[in-house]
Amino acid sequence: MNFDVFKGKRVLVTGSTGFKGSWLCTWLTELGANVSGLALPPAEDAPLFDQLKLRDRVDQHDGDIRDLNFVQRVLDRTEPEIVIHLAAQALVRLSYDVPKDTLDTNIGGGINLLEAIRKCDAVKALVFITSDKCYRNKEWDWGYRENDELGGPDPYSASKAAAELVFATYHESFFQQREGFQAATTRAGNVIGGGDFSKDRIIPDCIRALKDNKPIVVRNPISTRPWQHVMEPLSGYLAVAEYLLAGNGEGRPSWNFGPDAENVRTVKELADKAVDIWGSGSVDVQINRNAPHEAKLLMLISDKAKSILGWRPRWDFNEAVSQTIQWYKDVDAGEDPLEVTRSQIAAYMGGNK
Questions:
Q1: Which domain holds residue 85?
Q2: DSSP, residue by residue, 57-81
Q3: Which of these, 25, 36, 52, 303, is most buried using a 10 Å CB contact count?
Q4: Is residue 55 part of a domain?
Q5: Are 33 and 245 in contact (CB under 8 A)?
């Protein structure tokens, strides 16, 4: 992958104040891109954007993606060449509590962005991120490909499947005929990495328990997830952006980015590994029979990205968990979060010669 392609490029990241958005904005600024952000101000449980001092290096626009006029103003003002869309209500369990907000944000917000891009000629490439949960999960033992059935039983999964359909409508009705413009959706699994403090995510739950010298409580110990370090899908999004900027993408509007099959592990394995890297702690399994539905088995097949983009996962399960837990340990020991993050980005890129 040629990371130099982003140097000097105007890139707009929606959801810039979130976990993945903060990592992506940091990486893009390290690559020399001129980065703008569009997002709500950082939430109380999402301090990473401020920890990484991104307001000093990103042209940040605070606002709600559900406001079409705001979204249009940001695009008109920043005139991005590349848009990477991450803004979302990103938690499955929370979607049961706030289904309308989830649907309004993930579907309506996506529509607003697509509509604003339709009216902004500056944009040359759109990477529209949804989720691996856009697939109708049939709990089978093999992974999902880009042409498998969409859908989901919970509001979050349904919202991501619907966002894919909305994207397809804009792609086929408007974007395919637009000269000098390419767009694609991307689907990735559960990401881990330093600086995530959200509720109901396994790594933040682990860190809170470990720091408080309490057992890590695991509610679905045998559920498997395609765990990957946050830089894995982000590298995929950048690879798609490079591919689209080169004028490619026709007939390939969707891409999967997941770990290799041997790195799909159970929640219990992840918690045990976190304890091992932290150096102390324990895991307490407490199965809640009345908990909202969550998928027990979900994997992606990323063969298309591997064969066409040359993308490969670079950090296996052990390395991904090690880098993640080490981030929290280093920051807890007083190291600068920005420097820790920069160091991990450099280490990751060092494996991509």
A1: 3-196+226-261+298-315
A2: TSEEEE--TT-HHHHHHHHHHH--S
A3: 25
A4: yes
A5: no
**Pairwise CA distance, residues 75 & 26, whole Å:** 20
Q: The CATH number of the domain where 38 resides is what?
A: 3.40.50.720
Residue among 232, 104, 111 nearest 174 (CA): 111
Q: What is the dihedral angle through the alpha carbons of 44, 45, 49, 52, rounded to the nearest 10 degrees?
A: 110
- Asked if residue 284 belongs to a domain, the reply is no
Burial of 142 (0-12, 13-18, 19+ CB in 10 A): exposed
Report yes or no on 8 lying in a domain.
yes
- Domain tally for the chain? 1
Sign of the CA dihedral running 297, 303, 309, 314: positive
Question: Of 239, 229, 241, 144, nearest to 193 (Cα)?
Answer: 229
pTM above 0.70, yes or no: yes
Q: Is residue 215 part of a domain?
A: no
Share of the chain above pLDDT 70, in %: 96
